[in-house]
Every structure is written in C-alpha cells, then in structure tokens.
C-alpha cells in the first residue's frame, strides 16, 4: 500500500496538480519515505519496523542475553515457544502453579510432560531423573508466582539443571523491571543471570503497562522463533506507541536503579506496617502483597469497603486461588508515594477492624 501511494506521488501527472495540493502530497511523500525506511525485512508483512528491532535489541541488552523477539503479549510468547523448541523426543518439567499461558503453551507442545509440585526441589529432581530417557529437558517456572508473590528457587533449579543436563526457562512477568538490585528480574535477584537460558516476559505490567510480550535468550532460538512461532508469524506487530512506551521504560530502568530500589523500600513499608497491624501477608518481599483472609465473601466485601475509602484493591477467591485461600491482592507500584502507602494501611486497619479480621 505504501509503495502504491509513493509511486502515485511520483507519477507524470504531478505537474498538473495545483501547487498547494502538490505541497501536501510532497509532505505525504516524505512521511511515506520515512515509513518505508522504518519497515524491516523479516517482519514486513506484519508491520514490523526498525523501532521494533531497536526495542528487541534493548530488551536483550537489559536482560544481558543475545537476542529478543517481540509478541503481542506474553501469553502469545508462552503459547509460541514450547512447540517450536521441543518435540516428542523431549521433556518439559513444569511447576504445577505456573501461569495459565504456560500451561496452554505446554499443551500445544508434543514433548513429554512432567508436572512437579510447587517449588518442590525434591520432586523436581525425581522428575528430572525420570526424564533422563528423553533427548532434551526443559525446566519451566514462573520467576515470581503472581497469586502469592513467592519466588522460584532459581539457584537450586539451575544446580539441578546442571546435574541433569536440562535447560531453564523462566516467566518473568511479575519480576521484570522491579525485582533485583537493578530491576532485571528474579535471575538478577538470585545471582543466576548467566545460568537461566530463556526468559519470557511482558511489556504489559512494569514496562509501560499497555500490552506486548517477548522471548529473550540465545540468538539461534530467537531466529528459530521468527521462522516457526505461530503467534509471532500469524499476528500483527505491536502498535508503535506501545513500542515507544516500553522503550522509554527500559531507558529509565537502565539509566539508574532508583526505581528498582524505591520498589524495595515501598514494599517493605507496606508489608511491615500491615503485619504490625495484625494482618497476614503472603509470599516473600514482593510488591505483590496478598492480604490473606481465607473466606471469599469476606475478601470481596472488604475490597468493596476499601474502595469506599478510596483504595482500589481486588478480592481473589476460588477458582483463581485455591478454596479457603481468598485474599485481597495489593500491588505496590513505583508511582505510589510513601503517603499513599500509609493511607492504604490506615484504610486496611479501619476496614479490617470493622470485619473483625484484626482487633
Ligand atoms: C506469569 C504470567 N505470565 C504471562 C502472563 C501474560 O502476560 P500478557 O498480559 O502480556 O499476555 C501473565 C499475565 O498476567 C502472567 O501473570
């Protein structure tokens, strides 16, 4: 389409067009030329441009990996990776609480499936032993599990991967941009950036908050995904505003680590004040802070009362979390001030007292 518009602007009838219209067309011409310059060979049919390529390079640099490939979402990145990488001769070992998109991606893949108990290294090792009969093994885990904010023991997982000759894949949707001293993620937090082989993550949370996902890892893997990954091949590229927004978010993170550091201190502020007030907060030192309540009705009516106090939090209950483990999930953001956090705790104390959760 761009090509046709450009040749129209270069046609012999050009001189018969009134001068003002000619000026407008000349302007259009230069915009289209610039657009054509942007369009990148490999992904041309799906609207990929140089700005997508630059973002992929920036993502790879951020994670200290060889290359990266963009998807419309991390759901797509997870749906599109396993069937490309593994065949029926291989094995996937997946944490039982991995995100739904990993579960769906694994379902699409013909590899032999082993589900190990949540964060259970003994069970993972037993399954790795069993899986030695297969050609290749891939351990698949969320870096941080979103419902509880608990962190995968990546160092020990990498030790097992060395011992049993397996690759390690992590989903970093709940880590990229704010976990680790420089916000690089769980692998940075746990000192295994050079031992985790593949990372999938989202641009839809800490990196801009609109949409988009990616895989980053070895060059050869990314090249293979570009040729074979169905959600990449058969879906549109990310809209340019989303790409630019994520690119800026990465610039801010790579500039210095004040955002990542402030997340740690804000998270501590919220968790320590809430626990001092008598609440039970699930997970470890993660900005996802599940206020554990147990009862589903209690979680939803407390969330409603919090909204009346001007605090927007969501109650989660079965089937999103296990039965009798209903909670209100609070997510600390870099945009929150210390005063916001104190106001939120104050509201929780009032609402918690009203519902008899704390005294
Ligand atoms: C762990 C995990 N993986 C993948 C996804 C999907 O990410 P996206 O929203 O980019 O599709 C989510 C979204 O909530 C997630 O929590």
Distance between the termini: 68 Å
CATH class group of the largest domain: Alpha Beta
Oligomer: single chain
Report the C-alpha radius of gyration, rounded: 24 Å
Mass-distribution shape: globular
- β-strand percent reads 15-25%
Order of helices and strands: HHHEHEHEHEEEHEHEEHHHHEHEEH
Helix count equals: 14
CATH fold-level label of the largest domain = Aspartate Aminotransferase, domain 2
In total, the number of strands is: 12
Helix content: 40-55%
Q: Indicate the low-confidence ranges by residue numbers.
A: none
Query: Which CATH architecture of the largest domain?
Result: 3-Layer(aba) Sandwich
For the structure shown, list the relevant keywords:
transit peptide; acyltransferase; alpha/beta; 14 helices; 359 residues; Aspartate Aminotransferase, domain 2; binds pyridoxal-5'-phosphate; Aspartate Aminotransferase, domain 1; three-stranded antiparallel β-sheet
Please explain how this structure is put together:
The chain has 359 residues and is an alpha/beta fold. It is 46% helix and 16% strand. It has helices at 2-9, 19-38, 50-63, 74-85, 100-107, 121-130, 154-163, 186-189, 219-228, 230-233, 240-255, 258-276, 296-308, 338-354; strands at 67-71, 91-95, 112-116, 137-142, 144-145, 150-151, 166-171, 198-202, 213-217, 288-294, 314-316, 326-331. The strands form three sheets. A seven-stranded mixed β-sheet has the order 1-9-8-7-4-2-3, sandwiched between helices. It is globular. The model has no long low-confidence stretch (mean pLDDT 91). Pyridoxal-5'-phosphate is lined by residues 73-75, 78, 99, 101, 142, 146, 171, 173-174, 202, 204, 213. The site of pyridoxal-5'-phosphate has 14 residues, from helix 4.
């Amino acid at each position: 389409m761009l090509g046709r518009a450009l040749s129209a602007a270069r046609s012999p009838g050009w001189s018969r067009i009134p001068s003002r219209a000619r000026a407008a067309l000349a302007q259009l011409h230069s915009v289209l030329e610039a657009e054509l310059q942007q369009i990148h060979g490999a992904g041309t049919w799906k609207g990929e441009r140089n700005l997508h390529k630059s973002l992929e390079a920036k993502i790879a640099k951020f994670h200290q990996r060889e290359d990266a490939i963009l998807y419309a979402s991390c759901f797509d990145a997870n749906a599109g990776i396993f069937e490309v990488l593994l065949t029926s001769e291989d094995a996937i070992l997946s944490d039982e609480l991995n995100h739904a998109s990993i579960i769906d991606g694994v379902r699409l893949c013909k590899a032999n499936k082993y589900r190990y108990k949540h964060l259970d290294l003994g069970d993972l090792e037993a399954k790795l032993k069993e899986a030695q009969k297969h050609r290749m093994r891939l351990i698949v885990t969320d870096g941080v599990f979103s419902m509880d904010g608990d962190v995968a023991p990546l160092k020990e997982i990498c030790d097992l991967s060395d011992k049993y000759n397996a690759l390690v894949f992590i989903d970093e949707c709940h880590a990229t941009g704010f976990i680790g001293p420089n916000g690089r993620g769980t692998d940075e937090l746990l000192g295994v950036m050079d031992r985790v082989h593949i990372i999938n993550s989202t641009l839809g949370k800490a990196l801009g908050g609109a949409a988009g996902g990616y895989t980053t890892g070895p060059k050869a893997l990314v090249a293979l995904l570009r040729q074979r990954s169905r959600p990449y091949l058969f879906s549109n590229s990310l809209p340019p505003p989303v790409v630019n927004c994520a690119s800026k978010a990465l610039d801010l993170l790579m500039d210095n680590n004040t955002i990542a550091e402030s997340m740690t201190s804000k998270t501590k502020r919220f968790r320590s004040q809430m626990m001092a007030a008598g609440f039970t907060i699930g997970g470890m030192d993660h900005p996802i802070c599940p206020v554990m309540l147990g009862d589903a009705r209690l979680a939803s009516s407390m969330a409603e009362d919090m909204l009346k106090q001007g605090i927007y939090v969501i109650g989660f209950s079965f089937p999103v979390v296990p039965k009798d483990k209903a909670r209100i999930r609070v997510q600390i953001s870099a945009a929150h001030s210390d005063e916001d956090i104190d106001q939120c705790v104050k509201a929780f104390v009032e609402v918690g007292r009203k519902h008899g959760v704390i005294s």
